[in-house]
Fold these 2 entries.
Entry 1:
Amino acid sequence: MYRTHTCGELRIANAGERVVLAGWIQRIRKMGGMSFVDLRDRYGITQLVVNDSKDSSLNEIVGKLGREFVIQASGRVVERSSKNSKIPTGDIEIETESVKILNGSLTPPFTIEDDTDGGEELRAKFRYLDLRRSPLKKAMELRHKTAQQVRNYLDSKGFLEIETPVLIKSTPEGARDFVVPSRMNPGEFYALPQSPQQLKQLLMVAGYDRYFQIVRCFRDEDLRADRQPEFTQIDCEMSFVEREDILNTFEGMMNTLFANLLDTGFDLEKKFKYHDEIKISGSFPRISYTDAMKYYGSDKPDIRFGMKISSIKQIAAGAGFSLFDSAEYVGGISVPGAAGYTRKQTDELTEWVKRPQIGAKGLVYIKLAEDGIKSSIDKFYTPDHLQKIADEMEAKSGDLVLILAGPEKKTLEMLGSLRIEMGNRLGLRNSDEYAPLWVYDFPLLEWDEETQRFYAMHHPFTSPKPEDLDNFFSTERDKIAKVSANAYDFVLNGTEIGGGSIRIHDPAIQNRMFEVLGFTKEEAEYRFGFLINAFRYGAPPHGGIAFGFDRLCALFGGQESIRDFIAFPKNNSGRDMMLEAPSRIDEAQMKELFLKSTH
Amino acid sequence: MYRTHTCGELRIANAGERVVLAGWIQRIRKMGGMSFVDLRDRYGITQLVVNDSKDSSLNEIVGKLGREFVIQASGRVVERSSKNSKIPTGDIEIETESVKILNGSLTPPFTIEDDTDGGEELRAKFRYLDLRRSPLKKAMELRHKTAQQVRNYLDSKGFLEIETPVLIKSTPEGARDFVVPSRMNPGEFYALPQSPQQLKQLLMVAGYDRYFQIVRCFRDEDLRADRQPEFTQIDCEMSFVEREDILNTFEGMMNTLFANLLDTGFDLEKKFKYHDEIKISGSFPRISYTDAMKYYGSDKPDIRFGMKISSIKQIAAGAGFSLFDSAEYVGGISVPGAAGYTRKQTDELTEWVKRPQIGAKGLVYIKLAEDGIKSSIDKFYTPDHLQKIADEMEAKSGDLVLILAGPEKKTLEMLGSLRIEMGNRLGLRNSDEYAPLWVYDFPLLEWDEETQRFYAMHHPFTSPKPEDLDNFFSTERDKIAKVSANAYDFVLNGTEIGGGSIRIHDPAIQNRMFEVLGFTKEEAEYRFGFLINAFRYGAPPHGGIAFGFDRLCALFGGQESIRDFIAFPKNNSGRDMMLEAPSRIDEAQMKELFLKSTH
């Protein structure tokens, strides 16, 4: 061992001890005939002191040192005269007796500090240096602890971690698979799993009634800002359960995480304040998809704040304002304390909702100011009528009512975006609070006009709600479209981080699902034959859930982007800038794989 | 929840309770107006009893049941009149009140019993049914527990589990990479990692001084009987350590596993007998590669038994027996108590060593029988001389001495094989014992006559022993060939299940390594540029180890084959017989990937 202690562990109680430390040089200062060296490792920083005039050979070595050199230093722990309360080792320093250079370093291309001067691309290329910075180190530690907590919780609940293969069969439905040519089976390809969905269902058929895996998944999609071609899931499945059994089990997991991730350097104690209010043993709120859309205009509502959407079509129609009279839907939100918004501010909000990302045609407002009601539609509505609308929305004096009208689903989604925007503007999306929520009873199917067929909203193994089976087996498209799925999402602060469903275990329902999705018997057999076959040999009732592990870690770390919670992420073109992957392979290898590039 | 209890948990103390169970039907018997149904789940088997004449509707349902049907049954726990001491639930049965069929089942293609009647291919195709059998269930549980123990141990030692990417860069050196065409980067490919070797070294450069991962690795090799194209490693790396620090850390891990895997249904208590003798806190034996070859003719000796190899060239030469006089090496083993072997038996042994797999030209024996020494070479040697040879080998009266002669390395390897064979024949390789062993100081390089170049025995990042650096930088091929690596293997019962090394952290030594391996600067830069670059920015001294997790689990489970310790293994052609993977992909997908098949 090159060291007796780490750079994070010495305290005043160690004063007088002879120690050996090893690490990287964070910085060197000269002051009053002394050299001060900050030595850094994963655990912290310890100050080394060298008396410049005492030992000329030691002094010579210190003279050669530079930033990020790796050294081994020995000496005696002494109490500091001027203590540094900002670091845990700040009460002591090392009276250095010898220094050995273990490795030199070029000057790093950016500073290894919390706030570095390096741009994103440079840091991606030198990821091993970026990973030396404290925020990334904390992210890696948080991720490790989260994984350990998840595993220990699920282990304690009787779940078995079972590894499923990475080289599987391509079953395209939804996103694109990455494929792997097989040299031993010329002309054939493996696929990398988008999720172990079918394999975990086979494990249920095999009788492993509580399965989990923290597992890598792959999706060859065009990458949006915060998507990765490979990502990690907490993947789970249970047999002989109903929805509430699953929700309760994973509320327990979330509670364990909330309770046990307090010492990760993210000041999580403060962050879990909201959680304390809803109590660790309590249930998380639940809302149906229909209500989530109706009240929040979103299937992943951020419930850290209110500002719910109200429908006012009934009360607003019939006053001769043709927009409201003709619209399928009229609704709005009441923004607390914003009645004082100026004309300029409401104009700017109008522009905001008219942006193509939102797509509204205009915005109607009612200001419940102290000196009376003002509105952009007071030509059509009497103050009394406006007050009635405001009352319907439970708006109070001082509030600003914002109203949109149009087709129901689209308008609700616009109001949902507007609600989030107003939450941001009013500072109601407190990053110190965590508001978990279950959303359930999603639509089972989505009709695609272009291909004139239904697509599964979740995947083709999601069970319809038992009460909707008549509609599911109906020949009328409208009835089929109305079927709800026994599916649920776990939402945290307006981000979906988990989703799952009770699966189909009845072969007749599964066959009907393939039929509804427009698969011929042969297609279904080719794509999902092994699963269809397995279901003939005693499939138990089962269901499961999968959580986005990268996203979960980022949320716990209080960050928007997942990239710093992945050790070696890829950029938006799916490239690893450090490894320079993907890359060309040589002709001999292509030949062995029976492949030719047409590029 | 479909059940109140599992099929493995009810005991006599539960008598009188009303319970609901769910599971699969193992078998049904009718006897004296009663039906007995064995209901099975992951946790055990519970007997349900139905009085055939009591409830006609219940009786009707029971009449429909068949093997592997999934049912839900409710009733009252009662004490059995004739108890079954073979199962933990054998004191009770369920007086069944109602049965609900949750799913039917076709008759399975083989019996779901410990000793099934299904052939290997059939079981591979119906893996989800094979996984219902108890031996596989126990294997999955053992694997889960082993993984948990490994993680908890390493976590307690300050290791961080850090996930490394699966889509990396192809760096062919040694086995073939699987590759993944990139749609977004036409003409370019990712590679699947053969191990995260370079990534974990980058993590050391990044300052994460204790890393581990239980990680999937990939090798596109022609598969031998017990190899898999994807396999799992316990992958570890540490900084600021020397060899002994690493060996001690992982002895600790093995001791934890030995101590804590006693309740997995494999009767491991008995199996760890040997281990108790060497004491849980004690060190595992260590042997150098040179001594391992000299005494055991193998770099992975099985030390559960002695029968060490002795060199007898000195004492045997000069008697006019030209085979021994001319051979580079003469050596043998002394087989205890086998002096009574008949001529037929020694002839058979001679045939055995002459098989092409061993390749010896012949076998010399000396029988130390009670009625005097007998030997196949008594034409050339006096009884006195033979006795001297036997004495040199510490053979005792009653032993059978077996001698081979030829080129040193090859003959030692033959003797090593013969030793294992004799150990098997004499029942000395006791499957109830575990004999761990470290082998260290392997050769660094191997000269290949065909390509006229050196290859790295381990990989190009393995450090030479410091005392061999002069030879390493020498221009003479003989001197370079003699350099030892600071590498070590963990061997258990004659199987290598772990291997690692202290790595090179000095850029000058790393460059010399690339030079010795015949890489030009450009080649080295293209293949390992990111690592060479990283080493310019302060690489700490570091080293690590990786264990074959599949193999480790199989050994703990007392099995030779890893296949039953992998949930969904592939066959010898790399095919998943259940998924029918790999398979053809459609032309559209090939086009998107800019690929054409030439097959």
Entry 2:
Amino acid sequence: MIIDVHNHVVSGDRLPSYQSFLISGRGFHGKGHPNITEESVAQAKFSGKSHEDLLTEVGTDMAFISPRPFTMMHAQKPEKIVHYFIEASNDTIALAVKLSPTLMRGVAGLPQCSGQSPSVALEELERCVKELGFVGCVVNPDPGEGDGQTPGMGDEYWYPLYEKMVELDVPGIIHSAGCLNPRESFHNHFITEEGIAVQSLMRSTVFDDFPNLKLIVCHGGGSVPYQIGRWRALDRFSDYEETFDQRLKKLYFDTALYNTESLELLFKIVGPDNCLFGSERPGAGSSTNPLTGRWFDDIKPLIDDIPWLSDEDRQKVYEGNARRLFTRFKD
Amino acid sequence: MIIDVHNHVVSGDRLPSYQSFLISGRGFHGKGHPNITEESVAQAKFSGKSHEDLLTEVGTDMAFISPRPFTMMHAQKPEKIVHYFIEASNDTIALAVKLSPTLMRGVAGLPQCSGQSPSVALEELERCVKELGFVGCVVNPDPGEGDGQTPGMGDEYWYPLYEKMVELDVPGIIHSAGCLNPRESFHNHFITEEGIAVQSLMRSTVFDDFPNLKLIVCHGGGSVPYQIGRWRALDRFSDYEETFDQRLKKLYFDTALYNTESLELLFKIVGPDNCLFGSERPGAGSSTNPLTGRWFDDIKPLIDDIPWLSDEDRQKVYEGNARRLFTRFKD
């Protein structure tokens, strides 16, 4: 079985149309009516294809779908429009799961708001898990969307959220949202924020304080596995008995990298026990790789072809680790 | 011959002592007297050893030395103390080169100042090249040191500096300085800023406007080679005829990575023609790797052991590419 833990909802036009209404009006009209229905979600396409088709044609058996991160608008004001939009996004996800119950599960977007405690997001997280049956959540390490003001993920600022995640036993997928700073695209900001989040966590007491916290770093961990030598060497400034590699084992990583060399590096550095299949398909990698003729995000063949991975390794990456972490997922 | 293009001066105590005087007094005392002499530089040690010994014991024949980046304090105010300190740093480098003329050459620090045009640094660059015989310069993509306010390196903000670099025919080493934002260490900020700089340059007309501009991205290019699949796939949103990989060939990369897997990835993705040996030794990698018993920054054996590199590839990485770029370097 292939479980894709890093996957985003294909919503159709009504959700962005609702977002446009919220941002333009700045909340003047109140919550309004998203008008997102089973029918509108069922008709949604990406590049002319349904989400179901895009998943099944590459052999994905189960996708954990979350809001499309770059749209989450956590830094927009007033805060109520963030809440309205994230609620509508999660409701859209719930409809998609209802339409494809054997192929999809929900991962909650959180109404994190720049300048506020993450505790403002707990009610929505609870709703998604307890009422909508979602199995995880997306944690944006930078709700300021490029303003550099939110404390690193090792800071106690995050503790109300970690406490709730542990209580509900839901893993968090570390994935930033937009980037309002013109010097950086949101795409590169994902990678930037993953590096910052990992370094902050690795120099914190978060996993002492929350030993059952489960965090997955997207895009193969941003820059971290490639820059591993640096972090190993800098252990000489560390207060920890464990090495950087040992501490890194407390984190998990998805496989959303679109070339063999980088996937190999990921598996070699963090090990298959800490990797979960994730492709974002459809998303950043949804264009044809001229070398293979397939879309870049069709990465299972790349992983299948890595000769030194064992069948057991692959089973863990494709399914086993996801089942171990996402305990709320039932077939 | 082994040329290390990413190397920093071992200054001894007088340069940091001068920095402390400047920062504490905020320029009240004027320029003052750094009191850095041939003797004080000759006696400088890193971890009990001289810079000469640290280089020769790993087989480095020539090191291009620049200021230690995290000390460059580009965001300190008033601006005059940045100018004073960078001048003193460059003078220290000139003394080190004078003491080790067969082993070292100077790479200029630039008195970039947060909130100002890079044109404020041109006089010092010219002094370093024309009077002190330096062969290159360090370009800090973020003189705001974590404030996110400086335009990306693809912006015309940078053109006065690029123009001067081309006129003087000196390569620029892209390397950020400190990081005043508590959510990120300066070490991680290096990596962050390299990713941002590359993406900004790759989506700009800089190399059309300055076809002879030579830029070297430190630390193996930050996150870029590892995340290459993402940038390849996103070519579908690009206005360029050339692919991302083709455009990336306009940049150069050092080898300051401290493990075989990452070095292999670097060479595979950007190719040996675009890589220059750089180790930072002594610097971030100067602690013992328990797997080898050598310091992490002793990376020549790692590159020697990559079986698929040819002797010609290695010659380019160790020497040929550096000679091609640093035309002002003469034996």
